[in-house]
């Protein structure tokens, strides 16, 4: 049953994403059924690359049983691997159909974060992607915590699902404002929103993919927020002084990674959230 429910959660996420894209494709000036085409190109590659990405960073678990790599229903996929694979699929579609890649990326962005919000529940059914143990009995209740492997843990899958759902609402409601600034803005805000949430939530998990002492998804999240944020800042001709915020985040992140200052990670978090916040007036202010 757990296997079926895990697959069902992923399938529902994909279905919701396809439905949303089908409703939005005309507004973005894309041909009919582009949403379905995106799914046909992006989903298979997303699944394959997300699995290979996960296996690459957990090779010791698979090297003695290579067939285990194929048992994807047991869990073990990485969302950032899926994003890379999906982006490759969208790029191939853009080349074959001669459609602007950034327009397709804008179509995918809100659909993707909606699908992620739904698909995260697959982790609940597979009893995975949870956080540190919650020892205080007063806090041992769902959705704050989840009971797994014989004890209560932080329900990090739920935190991310809720964050992603809020991100979908944020991007969908403001999609026209973002698009007024040009193509690519919806996707940039997807990277910023998702990256901010994953950056924090990843630090609460106990099953992170690691590279030495670094949580890979956390590092990627930080750099995606910085890269997407700088791109938005340049496109909206924001004040150059705002570049100091990502610079401060990079410095604080380096100090945290080196183990020099424990609290430096919080400086990094605050700097990047502040950076994202300073980008919003360009879309909600009086400037055209």
Mean pLDDT, to the nearest integer, reads 92
Class by SSE composition: mainly alpha
Number of helix segments?
12
Radius of gyration: 19 Å
Characterize the biggest β-sheet: 2 strands, antiparallel
Order of helices and strands: HHHHHEEHHHEEHHHH
Helix content: 55-70%
The neighbouring-strand order within the major sheet is 1-2
Distance between the termini: 53 Å
Detail the poorly predicted runs.
none
User: How many structural domains?
Assistant: 1
Structure description:
By secondary structure, the chain is mostly helical. It has twelve helices and four strands, in the order αααααββαααββαααα. The strands form two sheets. It has a two-stranded antiparallel ribbon with strand order 1-2. A two-stranded antiparallel sheet has the order 3-4. β1 and β2 (151-154) form a beta hairpin. The longest helix has 24 residues, at 34-57. The radius of gyration is 19 Å and the shape is globular. The mean pLDDT is 92.
Topology, pairings included?
Blueprint: H1 2-24, H2 34-57, H3 79-97, H4 101-119, H5 121-125, E1 145-148, E2 151-154, H6 156-173, H7 175-179, H8 185-201, E3 210-211, E4 214-215, H9 216-235, H10 244-257, H11 264-279, H12 281-284
Antiparallel strand pairs: 1-2, 3-4
Key features of this structure:
288 residues; mainly alpha; two-stranded antiparallel ribbon; two-stranded antiparallel sheet; globular
Brief sketch in words of this structure:
This protein is mainly alpha-helical and 288 residues long.
């Amino acid at each position: 049953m757990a296997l079926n429910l895990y697959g069902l959660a992923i399938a529902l996420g994909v279905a919701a994403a396809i439905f949303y894209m089908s409703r939005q494709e005309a507004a973005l000036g894309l041909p009919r059924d582009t949403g379905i085409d995106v799914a046909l190109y992006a989903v298979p590659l997303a699944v394959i690359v997300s699995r290979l990405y996960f296996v690459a960073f957990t090779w010791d678990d698979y090297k003695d049983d290579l067939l285990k790599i194929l048992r994807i229903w047991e869990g073990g996929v990485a969302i950032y691997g899926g994003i890379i694979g999906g982006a490759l699929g969208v790029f191939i579609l853009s080349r074959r159909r001669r459609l602007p890649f950034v327009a397709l990326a804008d179509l995918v962005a809100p659909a993707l974060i909606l699908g992620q919000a739904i698909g995260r529940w697959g982790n609940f059914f597979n009893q995975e992607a949870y956080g540190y143990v919650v020892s205080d009995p007063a806090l041992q209740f769902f959705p704050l915590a989840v009971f797994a492997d014989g004890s209560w843990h932080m329900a990090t899958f739920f935190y991310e699902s809720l964050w992603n759902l809020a991100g979908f609402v944020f991007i969908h409601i403001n999609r026209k404002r973002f698009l007024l600034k040009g193509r690519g803005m919806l996707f940039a805000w997807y990277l910023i929103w998702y990256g901010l949430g994953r950056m924090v939530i990843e630090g609460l998990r106990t099953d992170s993919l690691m590279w030495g002492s670094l949580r890979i998804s956390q590092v990627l999240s930080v750099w995606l927020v910085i890269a997407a944020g700088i791109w938005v800042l340049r496109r909206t001709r924001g004040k150059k002084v705002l570049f100091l915020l990502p610079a401060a985040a990079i410095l604080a992140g380096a100090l945290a990674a080196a183990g020099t200052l424990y609290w430096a990670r919080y400086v990094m978090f605050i700097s990047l959230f502040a950076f994202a916040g300073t980008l919003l007036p360009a879309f909600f202010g009086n400037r055209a």
